[in-house]
Amino acid sequence: MPRGGDLSPPAVERIAHYRIVRRVGRGGMGIVYRAVDERDGKTVALKVIRETEVAGDESAPHVAEARVRFTREADILKGLLHANVVTFYEIGEEDGTPYLAMEYLEGKPIGGYAGRPFTETLPLLIQAANGMEYLASRGIVHRDLSPDNVFVVESGGERSVKLLDFGIAKLFESAATESLTATGFFLGKVAYGSPEQLGSLGQGAPLDWRSDVYSLGVIFYQVLAGRRPFEGRAPVEYIAAHLNLQPPPVASPADAPPLPMELVRLIGQMLEKRREDRPQSYREITDRLVSVLRGAGPGGASSPGQEARDGKRPAPPRGQTAPTQLVAGRAHPAAAPARRIAGIVLAGATLLGLLLWGALSRGPQTVPVQGAGAPTPRPVPATAELRITSVPWSVVVSVVDVSSGTAVRLPSPAETPLVLAVPPGRYRVTLAEAPPGVARAEREVTAVPGTPALVALAFRPVEELVEALR
Fold this sequence. Notes:
The two termini are 30 Å apart. It contains eight helices and 17 strands. Helix 2 packs antiparallel against helix 3 (209-225), helix 3 crosses helix 5 (261-270) and helix 4 crosses helix 7. It folds into three domains: 14-103, Phosphorylase Kinase, domain 1; 108-295, Transferase(Phosphotransferase), domain 1, CATH 1.10.510.10; 343-359 and 382-468, Immunoglobulin-like (Sandwich). By secondary structure, the protein is α+β, with helices and mostly antiparallel strands.
């Protein structure tokens, strides 16, 4: 289960009956060695937790947490056997050092194939979806999907995908949201986290396999486009994007063939904010990927082991993406009621959301259509967009047109973040910190067509929120 070449000489020569060859990786769960099982000469990846080699930030609480995750991974791997899941061999302990022996893989993470023609990468995506379907069938949610955990092995001109790292995976029935650790954000890599992992369901709500569908969609997007759907400079920027922003439709790099429309639609659906709007089975995802690959023509035929299962398949894609085409599917309602995100995660996400909302596309304006011989109609006045947000979330008490004193009709419940379409003018916005009645604040803002008007209020010091998420 290597991540690359030699990192350093091994600090030990032997653990139990395994002879250490070299150290190939390290992380929050300890060290990974390439080793040889001297009983049969088999090369293995040996994952261990050696407290003497854990330095810096990995203090006693981190080591204790790593041990829990280590044991969880072993318990899960012992029951798995699938061509697209890393193979487990043995778990044991030697002189207080727990070790986990598994299949040794030579290859690279799937992110190394990002931006290549889709006909080349689709077989890899199909295998990844097959592996995830197997996990879901065993009642497992991975919760830590990233390109590093989707490993591609090349052998004899063939490429096979292996899913790795089950240290934070859990069974569905016990997979309650564990969003926060001592470091301030959830264990999985935040750039690939689902809205559920970031708290969109509320504190303590259980995750299911559809959370992994979202994370897999982010990986697929990166492989197909050569970049992630959202980029950020800090964890809270990713949190804000996953919770609030609709990703742009996936598109291939300029030097690669354009993506079929059906593939664009599929990725968009995998990245829906509401898990109910995502594909409702991995079989559906696999079948649609195979359909796209078959529809690509010569060179796009699926290889052995990658055929779709029996059952109905969607029709082959019609046409390819172009700059003017739109993706069919449910749009993320910007004016949906704000979710009560667990504590500071929501606050930080909302804060960074202010920065990211500026990148949202402008809404369409109404354009009058002239009929033959009809008089030219009077232009329809354009509406303006009013965006209201706060740190943390709050109740929108009222939005009043200052000139007329007319109150704008609000949805129920009216909570931040909230986007309103209003006539051009000046508005007084009143917010109440949740729970209502604790604190209130007012702002006036001028709304004009073409430029979103932003009302952003902080009920808590920004420095306190940012520091808590470091």
